[in-house]
Amino acid sequence: MTDIPRYQLEEYRPLHRAGNDHIPYPIPGLELYSSKGLTPPPMVPARCAFYRVSLVLVGEVEIQIGLDIHQHRAPSVCFTYPNQVFFKRGFSEGTQGYYILFTENFLDELVPSVRMPSEFPFFNPDGHPLFQLEDVDVFTGHILRIQQEMQEDRPGRVKAAQMHLYLLLLEAKRSYERQQLGVSPVVGDLVARFRRLVGQHYREKRQVADYASLLAVTPNHLGRVVREATGRTPSDLIRDLLLLEAKSLLRLTGQSVSEIAYQLEFSDPATFGRFFRKETGMTPLDYREMQD
């Protein structure tokens, strides 16, 4: 079943690079670019089969990771790990920064991918993916050294890039720990577990009762706790990710509205159309045409 696109690193570059933005000596498994070389990103949800690090130096952008919405304001850094659903929108005029993308095994010689969530808390599902940087100059210094290794054909440049990327992550970890961010304050409670389950199962599980059963609570109890913590119902949060999926399929696939409706397990296209219009104020076809 087709769902939110999952990009490999080599597929992602054309979506964001201007055609003349050339890297003289690319390093397999690693991408780095600044806002200077960016083309407007697709304003639709996506998954990536790699790690992402974004640094905002000027301006801000809103980024949604799963069900959580963050304001990525200068000087802040944001991290996502493979297979997370994310969605960027609302770039302020003149927003500037850097993006680093690297494959799951790029740093295996220094820290195996299986240890990344414990080594770097911002790559942990229970951690904070976005926070303010305390020493931006040190962080950007490592970015510029990586950039230099990609621009010059020098011996050992792959290893040097790996080392600077590791030191960049270590600097972020130090800033993270100095701010005593730890893990999300709701981690371990019912709301946190519900949100994680929704992120995993929203396509096949649409009923609050499904999640209540997984969490060993009653639907009424789950609804009450989620509303108190978020101001929204469990059904609202399930619909949020379903809507992201629908937008992605409309924007990035050639499937008909009917095909998408049945794929997303609506009873018929009309029901899907009513859902989409209620959530966005437009029909699925209007949304698709607007994005072209």
TrEMBL record:
GO terms for molecular function: DNA-binding transcription factor activity; sequence-specific DNA binding. Pfam families: HTH_18. SUPFAM superfamilies: Homeodomain-like (SSF46689). Keywords: DNA-binding, Transcription, Transcription regulation. It comes from the Bacteria. Coiled coil: none annotated. PROSITE patterns: HTH_ARAC_FAMILY_2. Residues 192-290 form the HTH araC/xylS-type domain. InterPro entries: Homeodomain-like_sf, HTH_AraC, Tscrpt_reg_AraC-type_HTH. This is AraC-like DNA-binding protein.
